[in-house]
């Protein structure tokens, strides 16, 4: 028996020596900080640690930049820009421009967009080299809490880190239990399109579904979208989202609420049918699944080292500590707030705490501003009305609202005008602003500035004391007069399910 164990042990050592690069040893592969995942959060944390003079290694299986840069925020916003130009052209005649036939090449747009992303990938690699961060390409796996194996295809290497951070992000949810899911594309597939379909059905009414349906509809694609909830982008204020839904419907987007998709059936080439638990099925040339995102940790070995989970996500406390000492997690993989700037800020704060001497440094997850790049865009910071009423009671709130047409539409006929809607939720007695919500032209660039004021604890009096910039939509937030101190009948639609 002992002889068998000796032979088995020697065989394993021989296999390890075959996989090991002779030029590498554990001393050279030992780091102060190993970051698994080269997305926005992972890179931010690694770079901050390197600035403190630490020996840092970043492991990424694919391209640097993660989802945001390669198949998310950046290409989305570039495509949104193209849709905005197309929108502006629709108003050209109202401003006196006589424009002939306009042609657009989606393939050309994709080519230029991809070239910019490739440029960003190169810039990120340059940052790694310039800041002396060891960049390792391959799939990482925990062997022990501080021992990582990286599969590089032709070989496997082992890296040891005093601190290890998991920043592997998320991926599109493609539920295998849904019949016909193999016929659907996800958001990654959207960015790979060289030409547009004539029609598309999008499963899911969150950020991705709303933004992509708005872009495609703007380019003449017949769009349909469905969700289980009564309204789109559920985390946003209900009054705001119902108003956006009205505009989307006016623009020709079919919205099917409070349904569950039962299956996707292929009827022919570029011909699919989507069926629901109630109502009539819908047919389209293409079907996209935008039902949300799930943590990306397949094969990571987190279960091997005994990391605790929070449902499907890796559990991390307010300081991004995991349940195993020396192991941390941040960004989408924790399920806290799936927003790129949140992961970036959390990554930097973690490095400050571990290596910068700031023992209490941590990400503040309260009052995070966010925007949906819809047509028109919507944005918010703070509590929605329903949550504020539930927490404080309707009698403790004073709510200000305004709706008007942006001056841009002054020369346009009524049917082409889009409303701007704004809402301030304040908490009595001092009317502290606890929620700021808006929809309309230019809102996406406006929210960031007001977010600073709300984060600082501004009151309605502070807003009123700020001089307006005229003529702008933003001035409405500092001149609002219409207020209600009771909960409208609209709350019936706002109650959580």
Secondary-structure-derived class: alpha/beta
* Residue share in β-strands: 15-25%
Low-confidence runs of at least 5 consecutive residues: 1-24, 486-497
Gross geometry: globular
Span of the ends, CA to CA: 62 Å
| Largest sheet descriptor | 7 strands, mixed
Helicity, as a percent range: 25-40%
Number-wise, the strands total 24
Mean pLDDT: 92
Radius of gyration: 26 Å
Number of alpha- plus pi-helical segments: 13
List the SSEs and their pairings.
Elements: H1 2-19, E1 30-36, H2 40-51, E2 56-60, H3 66-71, H4 73-90, H5 106-130, E3 133-137, E4 139-144, E5 147-151, E6 156-166, E7 170-172, H6 187-190, E8 199-203, H7 207-218, E9 222-226, H8 238-250, E10 254-256, E11 261-268, E12 271-276, E13 282-284, E14 286-289, E15 293-295, E16 309-310, E17 313-314, E18 327-329, H9 340-355, E19 370-372, E20 378-382, H10 385-392, E21 397-405, E22 419-427, E23 432-439, H11 443-455, H12 460-464, E24 483-484, H13 491-494
Parallel strand pairs: 1-2, 1-6, 2-3, 6-18, 8-9, 8-14, 9-10
Antiparallel strand pairs: 4-5, 5-6, 7-15, 11-12, 12-13, 16-17, 19-20, 20-23, 21-22, 21-24, 22-23
Account of the 3D structure:
The radius of gyration is 26 Å and the shape is globular. The model is unreliable at 1-24 and 486-497 (pLDDT under 50). The protein is built from 13 helices and 24 strands. Strands 1, 2, 3, 4, 5, 6 and 18 form a seven-stranded mixed sheet that branches. Strands 19-20-23-22-21-24 form a six-stranded antiparallel sheet, with helices on both faces. The longest helix is centred in the N-terminal third of the chain and has 25 residues, at 106-130. Helices cover 31% and strands 25% of the residues. The protein is of the alpha/beta class.
């Amino acid at each position: 028996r002992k002889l068998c164990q000796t032979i088995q042990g020697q065989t394993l050592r021989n296999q390890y020596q075959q996989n090991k690069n002779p030029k590498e040893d554990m001393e050279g592969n030992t780091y102060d900080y190993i970051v698994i995942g080269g997305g926005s959060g992972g890179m931010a944390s690694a770079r901050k640690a390197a600035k403190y003079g630490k020996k840092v290694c970043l492991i990424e299986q694919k391209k640097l930049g993660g989802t945001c840069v390669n198949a998310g925020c950046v290409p989305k916003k570039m495509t949104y820009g193209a849709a905005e130009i197309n929108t502006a052209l629709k108003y050209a005649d109202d401003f006196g421009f006589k424009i002939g036939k306009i042609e657009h090449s989606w393939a050309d747009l994709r080519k230029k967009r991809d070239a910019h992303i490739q440029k960003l990938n190169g810039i990120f690699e340059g940052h790694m080299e310039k800041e002396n961060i060891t960049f390792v390409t391959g799939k990482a796996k925990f062997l022990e809490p501080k021992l990582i194996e990286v599969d590089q295809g032709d070989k496997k290497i082992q890296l040891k880190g005093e601190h290890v951070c998991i920043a592997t992000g998320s991926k599109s949810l493609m539920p295998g239990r849904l019949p016909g899911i193999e016929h659907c594309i996800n958001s990654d597939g959207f960015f790979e399109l060289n030409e547009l379909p004539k029609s598309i059905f999008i499963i899911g009414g969150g950020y991705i579904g709303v933004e992509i349906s708005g872009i495609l509809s703007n380019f003449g694609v017949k769009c349909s979208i469905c969700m289980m909830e009564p309204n789109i982008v559920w985390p946003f204020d209900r009054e705001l989202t119902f108003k956006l839904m009205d505009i989307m419907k006016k623009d020709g987007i079919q919205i099917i609420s409070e349904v569950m998709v039962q299956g996707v059936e292929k009827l022919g080439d570029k011909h699919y049918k989507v069926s629901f638990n109630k109502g009539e099925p819908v047919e389209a040339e293409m079907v996209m699944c935008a039902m949300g995102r799930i943590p990306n940790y397949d094969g990571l070995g987190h279960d091997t080292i005994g990391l605790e989970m929070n449902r499907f996500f890796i559990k991390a406390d307010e300081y991004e500590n995991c349940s195993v000492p020396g192991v941390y997690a941040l960004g989408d993989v924790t399920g806290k707030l799936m927003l790129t700037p949140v992961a970036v800020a959390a990554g930097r704060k973690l490095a400050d705490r571990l290596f910068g001497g700031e023992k209490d440094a941590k990400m503040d997850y309260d009052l995070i501003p966010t925007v949906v790049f819809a047509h028109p865009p919507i944005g918010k910071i703070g509590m929605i009305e329903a949550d504020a009423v539930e927490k404080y009671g309707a009698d403790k709130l004073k709510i200000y609202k305004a709706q008007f047409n942006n001056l841009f539409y002054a020369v346009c006929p009524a049917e082409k005008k889009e409303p701007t809607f704004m809402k301030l939720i304040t908490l009595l007695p001092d009317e502290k602003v606890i929620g700021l919500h808006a929809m309309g032209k230019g809102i996406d660039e406006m929210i960031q500035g007001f977010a600073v004021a709300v984060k600082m604890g501004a009151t309605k009096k502070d807003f009123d004391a700020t001089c307006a910039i005229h003529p702008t939509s933003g001035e409405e937030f500092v001149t609002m007069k219409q207020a209600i101190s009771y909960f409208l009948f609209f709350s019936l639609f706002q109650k959580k399910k």
